[in-house]
Amino acid sequence: MPGNPLLKTKTDNMSGSNPDGNNGVDNGIFTQLVHYRLEEDNSSGSEATLYKLQKHFNTPSARRTSKMPAELVDQLVLNKMSDINDHDQKWGVGRTMDVLAKDNTPVPRSIVRQVKQQNEPLAVDARFPGRKKIPRGHLKCIGPFYEVNCDGHEKLGSLALKMGPVELPIYGMKDKWSSAILHLVVVPNDRLETTIGHVYLDFVESFGAIPIQITVDKGSETGYMRQFQLELRKLFNWLWPPIIQYELDEFRDSWNKHKIRRQPKKRMPSGNTPSMFFRCPELFKGIRSGAQARKEDVNALRTRIPVSREDAFRWVDSNFAMVVGAIYEGNNSVEILD
After folding, report:
1. Residue 193 covered by a domain
2. Which domain of life is it from (predicted)?
3. Furthest CA-CA distance within the chain
4. Could you list the residue range(s) of the whole structural domain that residue 157 is in?
5. Coil, strand, or helix at residue 83?
6. Are the beta carbons of 239 and 325 closer than 8 angstroms?
7. Distance CA 34, CA 32 (A)
8. Which residues pair with 170 in a beta bridge?
9. Mean per-residue pLDDT pooled into runs of 10, the chain (338 residues)
């Protein structure tokens, strides 16, 4: 290994009663994995050298992290527990450890388990194998302005007043999570889409925000409301797919590098990462299958699909994308994935 500070004084001759360095029982798999890693990094050396290098360059490890102040280590775990990716508190101890290790802050299993038991005991109990499922049947919403219910009220209509052809229709909007009535207005006609379109815009203007979801009964009065929401849907489809794809790539990388716990009764491999199983199946009694496919053959098959790949993956029409992109660039906006 060029520039290795630990190999400068290393001699070719090894002394001692164990020159091969074989301590205990080993089937050789771990040694081969280390050699594969060294070859991948264009390096050379033994396992002992690798451990010395890790110590020399202060490579993060769970043992080193455990020597940090307890409150700092606990906060590392709490940060991942409050992460948006674990909003439903579904991550177990192993998954949380994998995410911490990927951020170069590995934490011992005992500490992760203790922090989870102290801070989300109900979630820990819910993940316990064999626990009876909780019956579902309640309304669900994450907070204000996530969903707003809208509808007309005709209890003061002509049939109710019985005063001839006069009526006092009402249109209201109610927040699902808080049950707060956000907008309640008397209108000349609660079945006319132009009137309700202005009611909706008055509501948006008064709060300076648009709900994530509008729930209506699909009456004729919701025509303009629907159009406004569809435009937002187009904007959503323009903005979010590249962000989600970035996160998917991150998740794929994280999943392939996480360690699957050892399961002696499992017929397929365990005790290492999916990436290692896939790349080196022969080390785990696997047989690589699959037939070779040339790029020109794939392109020939692709021509049989009546829609091009570009059109098949198009989220919005080109005109909309061009206009929104120009506005985005004109505002000197930062990169979406920064």
Report:
1. yes
2. Eukaryota
3. 111
4. 147-214
5. coil
6. no
7. 5
8. 153, 186
9. 48 49 59 70 66 72 73 81 70 83 83 84 75 75 94 78 81 95 92 91 94 87 86 89 94 94 92 94 92 94 94 91 86 54
